[in-house]
Amino acid sequence: MKLVTPPRVSPQAFDTAMQAFAGVVGKDWVMASDADRSAYADTYAPGPQEQWPASAAVAPASVEEVQAIVRLANEHKTPLWPVARGKNLGYGTAAPRMAGSVVLDLGRMNKILELDPTLAYCVVEPGVGFFDLYEAIQRDKLPLWLSVPGNAWGSVMGNTLEHGIGYTSYGLHARNVCGVEAVLPDGDVVRTGMGAMKDNPAWHLFPMGYGPTWDLAFTQSNFGVVTKMGLWLQPAPESSLELVFDIPEADDIGWVIDTIAPLKISGLIDQNVFIPSWLGKMVLKGQRKDFWDKPSAIPEWRVAELLKEHKLGYWQVALRLYGEEPVVKAKAEVVKAAMARNLKAAPAENWWRTGDPINAYETTMGVPSAVPLQMSDWIGGRGAHMGFSPVVPATGKAVLDQMKLSRKIIDSFDVDFYASFTIGGRFANNVNMLMFDRDQPQQIDTMKKLFNALIDETAKAGYGEYRTHLGWMDRVMDTFDFNDHAFRRFNEKVKDAIDPNGIIAPGKQGVWPSAYRDQAKEGRA
Amino acid sequence: MMRVLTIAAVALLAACNQQEAAPPPHAAKGGPPPPPPYQMRPEAASGNRLAASDGQRAYEVHCGYCHLTGGMGTNLLTKQRMMAGEPPENGLLTNRTDLTADYVRQVVRMGKNAMPQQTKVDITDAELDAVALYLGKAK
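ok -> structure tokens follow
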């Protein structure tokens, strides 16, 4: 990828900045060739990767090096785009929102600083992946479980900072954050919560601290570069029971939500309950062309045939309970009785007890894998996906209305409907997976128009997304419109106060520093 | 034909899982079996990542979570190799005899199909050279 320098930085000034960075990290860790730039491009870009070009990447190995780089970036006016491991697939990978930003790749900072089985927490640096943390726990045979996202190739911290979700009792990852260390845009270092006191042993135990609580202000944020994070982990349960319900019809999702959400809110169910539609199972069974060989959406009659052939319900609820066996048994009776009000068939029951093997692909037991990404093979070629992910109240009515709305829009573009709902408590995350081939411009064009329609129409219904791709960060931020976009205006006031040069992640989530606000119209998909 | 292959690949996956379920002879009584290879990579070598390194270890650490047994890359390649009329074992890159070092370097840096390109932080040039020699059995 050819060099695009940051706004108002000449090639010569850019070169000087790179030399200054090399003085901190060594020349091998300043990566500024055409090939290097391509390596940091959005691998699932909806359209040309050149829309979101990094000018270079720099990879520090310590907090002190991060501070030095941030100070030099201010001096040379070369904005940084921090990534933990840069595997934010579907949302931009490692690529920056603003053209010419330098990727600050924190992947070399990959130490697990603490792993405490008694109080069940860890402290990680940005480069620690889910596999790394899982393997460290296995090596020491610690009674701790992770909560993992579908693709566990990425960083524990990065996924948490982006508000990633998993499918265990600890599935709302940003909720597990307790105490972070961040390098601020002026190069200063701050520790949040009890960590604001030197050597306070409760840093990663008490989440409120004293005074304003800033942990979450560093998530989906451009207020600083997080260099350490405390995260609570799930103590390994003594036993676990999976109840698998096949739910026959699309509209059944209404009563399913009204049955499960109250049990989740009351605390009887701890888990983030993931409810994928049938296509979630089908993508693991082959390629789309094996089941429907036309470019048009799979019609309803064919869906009905496939469900019958493969003995699938329209939805599947694989609900998991965790804890001491008598407690799990008692909880299971309550869940089964509640589901039986609407569903005759009894669930399949899969017990696990301490010492039993765990299926290697079991995300509801915190086992990391990248296997769910096999869905990129569903489309064939250079398959890619994007998720349209609004959050709705966890009531049957709200979920049904949302499903009908997004389905109508997706149908009108003649694209396959692949929805899931994850009940996280009083809300459900609705992910509509849109799969496409990166080498089919027509398909990409359709996806982009569809994505815009989904954002706009869903906002009219009153709902917003919880996360989005680079190309839609501004469009989604525009939907948060209370009091003339007071939320964006407040964030930008804070941004300008703490980062007058706009050096950290300009444009992240639609928050632009005044230094680069003139760039906000670029890079929109 | 396609369906047969798909079923075969799924069966292979299931077989992997069953293998996990059978306790290895050396396992302690009552203890769970170890995770499959792709979830028990060795620890990364300490020392200078910019200097020459051990190809096998670099492969297992930096490529292993997809390309050891059970990993996503192995699963997809198994299917692909079988469609090309090869035995399923060829889904594991370490079993391939037709890879050249240059080809390995190129796929790692440029990506291919479902595999995204890898940065120099993911795998340094020195590590990649060692991996390319380790996998590149064709001359």
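Chain B is about 45% helix and 0% strand.
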